[in-house]
């Protein structure tokens, strides 16, 4: 499991003040946070997961980031897209523009009209850019220069003469040069010190992205903390026992993936938990991306063993004290069973079922999962109760 020393070092760096503040913007919480949180909770509940931590609001904390504007020529944007220096998040990969819409965007550039800008997060270590907003425009440019749109020849449609029906290669030289040299403005932001704290990036991504439906916390986390740990979580999300317990196909908003992250975070660092839950899981995900392959394998192994034991004991009915899968029951029972497995003391499925039912019957345990489930005391109470119950002979 991840070491406490690793977490202490991470948190120390994540709370250190910046050395300098140049070209600074402050990103503050918006007044509709509470409404958005209520929406997120109701969406999750409708999908069968009761997670009260989604009702948490982010308060009045301010963030300091450095941002600046840059003007890119179209041909330089295409070069960056082809070279993979612009990264499109997984949940944005579906191209939704029609050929007509894409053609109109190209026409605007050929006419010399101003077009909406793009929004990028620049990674300090790689200098690559994460596309926060503007992927439809960038992918349109890439497709037009490549000459294909949805596996068909990309010919401009419903545009003015002399461009109608033409591919990039069929434009005359002057028009090609004009398109190549057309400018698209980009707003680029980077995280100031602390360099490895992603909280402000999380909020910027949550607010700036214009893809339509509000992104879930785990969808954003998969983007800003992409790496070997998130890849492991995606793989574990396909586990047969877990799919039977969670129910249905893979969740479109990645709630099933978030619960796996939450299990690992509570297993490793429950004694250091501090609300809000989203921030705790963000920091844990970033930390775990620095884990060795052996550490990741160990985490994968304990998840599969734990969920297998629970599914065998409860036959797919786990973590549902009422009807929906309760996230607080999930994290505590998973940690309790996993701790027993890690101790090397075997436990049979009949005993797991008995302890589980006794836990749900406990008034003290019930209080920790029925209300204020994100509070530090509630988390501590249910974790201690579960670990104690499953460790008993």
Fold blueprint:
Blueprint: H1 4-14, E1 24-28, H2 33-46, E2 49-50, E3 62-73, H3 74-82, E4 86-87, H4 99-110, E5 118-122, E6 129-133, H5 135-146, E7 148-149, E8 152-153, H6 173-181, E9 183-191, H7 199-208, H8 217-224, H9 228-236, H10 240-246, H11 255-269, H12 277-288, H13 293-314, E10 325-326, H14 327-342, H15 349-361, H16 363-370, H17 376-391
Parallel strand pairs: 2-10, 4-6, 5-9
Antiparallel strand pairs: 1-3, 3-9, 5-6, 7-8
Helix pairs in contact: 3-5, 4-5, 7-8, 9-13, 10-13, 11-12, 11-14, 13-14, 13-15, 14-17, 15-17, 16-17
Notes on the protein architecture:
The protein is 52% helix and 12% strand. It contains 17 helices and ten strands. It has a six-stranded mixed beta sheet with strand order 1-3-9-5-6-4. Strands 2-10 form a two-stranded parallel sheet. A hairpin with a 2-residue loop joins β7 and β8. The longest helix has 22 residues. The two termini are 24 Å apart. About 7% of the residues have low confidence.
